[in-house]
Amino acid sequence: MKNQISKCINILASILALLFLFGAKSVNVQATEDDREFDYIRGSPKGPEKWGDLKPEWAECKNGRMQSPIDLSLARVRFMSQPERTTYKPFNATLKNSGYDISVQWKGDAGSRFINGTEYRLQQVHWHTPSEHTINGRRYDMELHMVHESPDVNVQNRIAVVGVVYQIGHPDPFLSMLNASISSVIDKKDEEVNLGVINPNDIQSGSLSYYRYMGSLTTPPCTEGVIWTVNTKVKTVSRSQINLLKEAVLYYAEENARPLQPRNNRDIFLYFSRF
């Protein structure tokens, strides 16, 4: 009889422990959800349509006239020819899960891209699924953004972003190098992992032609004056790699592409270049 009572007590204790752990996890998940400043869920109180109302300093998200992303169409471009130069080089980097995206951030001089003679230093890269920009009306499965900033405080447009679009196919070699690190930060908002030395050239971001236009950041505060370069060359990524990126971020950013924004008569240039 005592053994049966003891067994029942142990079972009850185990059930209570599981309920406690589940409750603690639920509270933690709820806290994480409540901490989000914005999300990508259409119709949500913090969704893309509401970004400009969430904070005064985010007003440009709704009032700006040069917002990104946009559709890039060959029927509406001006053709140009201009060589540009990149000097990317290996440097120490970390991988970070912001909850909204997965990024690789260099902790020093990882090289630069030169635009019209102005140096823009590479800061970080991150991914959006699906692509944010569309090309001739087509949305791709993923888009990589390489974010650069000019060290010259007197430059009018200090941020330059290179966009690379991907469709389902062979695995992307650069993402393949990061699979284990991405897996280690699944659902861990603000978690960082040291990657050691990462070479930006492994991204293979070069393209013989690319679109260029003046736009904005695609996340709040949606700052305008960003020089956008979107490669016409479409690369490939495996479905499992995309699924891993979606699994790693929090649920409200599994599809972390901002809706298309009005062009508002902006010039779009199609450049043919040497890299």
Automatic annotation (TrEMBL):
Gene3D superfamilies: Alpha carbonic anhydrase. SUPFAM superfamilies: Carbonic anhydrase (SSF51069). Residues 36-272 form the Alpha-carbonic anhydrase domain. GO terms for molecular function: carbonate dehydratase activity; zinc ion binding. Its cofactor is Zn(2+). Keywords: Lyase, Metal-binding, Signal, Zinc. It is an enzyme of class 4 (lyase). It catalyses: hydrogencarbonate + H(+) = CO2 + H2O. Belongs to the alpha-carbonic anhydrase family. Reversible hydration of carbon dioxide. This is Carbonic anhydrase. It comes from Fraxinus pennsylvanica.
